[in-house]
Amino acid sequence: MTGAQHSYPTQAVVLAGGQGSRLRPYTDDRPKPMVEIPGTGTPIIGHQLDWLAEEGVTDVVISCGHLAEVLQEWLDHAQLPLRVTTVIETEPLGRGGGLKYAAGSLPRPDEPWYATNGDIWTRFPLREMAAFHHERDAEATLALARPRIPWGVVETDAFGHVLDFIEAPPSPYLINAGVYVFSAAFTGLLPVRGDHERMTFPRLARERRLAGYPLPHGAYWRAIDTAKDLTEAAKELSAQRR
Fold first, then answer.
1. Which residues neighbour 126 within 8 Å (Cβ) at sequence distance 6 or greater?
2. How do residues 187-206 score in pLDDT, each as one tens digit?
3. pLDDT recorded at residue 189
4. Where does the pLDDT of residue 26 fall: very low under 50, low under 70, confident under 90, or very high at 90 and above?
5. CA triplet 228, 237, 167: central angle to 5 degrees?
6. Furthest-apart CA pair in the chain: how many Å?
7. How far apart are CA 49 and CA 42, in angstroms?
8. Which residues of 126-146 are buried (b: 16+ CB within 10 A; e: fewer)?
């Protein structure tokens, strides 16, 4: 079956329950996904929902935890581009358990679904990732990013002569970008409590049922973990608008 002959996912889960301790004081009174990107007037979760809607998603389940009421109040008053349901973890379930719990509220449990971490700000064609996932007959596909190393590096020759200084070069390694495509059956493979990256993904990798989709060249991706990330995101946004 070719990519043109299958339907793309129209439902997604967003994990938004983290405390964001490294983003304090921004997260003292709000959950991490409710932190605003400077210069946009919109929280991280708002950018995510807009992106998901642009990519054909009609229904999102948001898994809440820390200061869930702040996020729910924003959702109640925001003009949302899609239908949103929230679920609240009454006890920490881990990322895998949180995904499984939230997936139980997806409107179409027999269809594939996207998932994303609530602290990711990105733009890339999700439908292309879904086609990649389908072509490889994978149970799960994770987006792969190549972040920039946050320090300047020194290039030397074999003899030890310094050849060059390179500021914030791309990492030689790919990392999990925190965006996923899952088959309908994947929900049953998730742990009730625990981390899917340690409990589910390794087994799927051994069985060659886990795929990795490299983000397209030039695609925007940033994890918002620290105040510096907020500053850098604002600079990047300003550069894009020039």
1. 8, 9, 51, 52, 55, 56, 57, 114, 179, 181
2. 999 998 888 888 899 999 99
3. 94
4. low
5. 55
6. 63
7. 11
8. beebbbbbbeeebbbbbbbbe
More confident residue, 153 or 128: 128
Residue 170 is classified by DSSP as B
Task: Tell me how crowded residue 178 is: count the other CB atoms within 10 A of its CB.
Answer: 19
Task: Find the helix or strand (DSSP H, E) in which 222 lies.
Answer: strand 220-223
| Contact (CB, 8 A) for 102 and 61 | yes
216 burial via Cβ count (<10 Å: 0-12, 13-18, 19+):
exposed
Instruction: Give the Cα separation of 214 and 85 in Å (integer).
Output: 30
Question: pLDDT tens digits, residue range 67-82?
Answer: 778 888 888 888 888 9
Alpha helices in the chain (DSSP H): 44-54, 68-77, 94-103, 126-135, 196-199, 201-206, 227-241
Residue 9, C-beta contacts closer than 8 angstroms, at least 6 positions apart = 56, 57, 111, 112, 113, 114, 126, 130, 181
Instruction: Check whether 150 has a pLDDT greater than 80.
Output: no
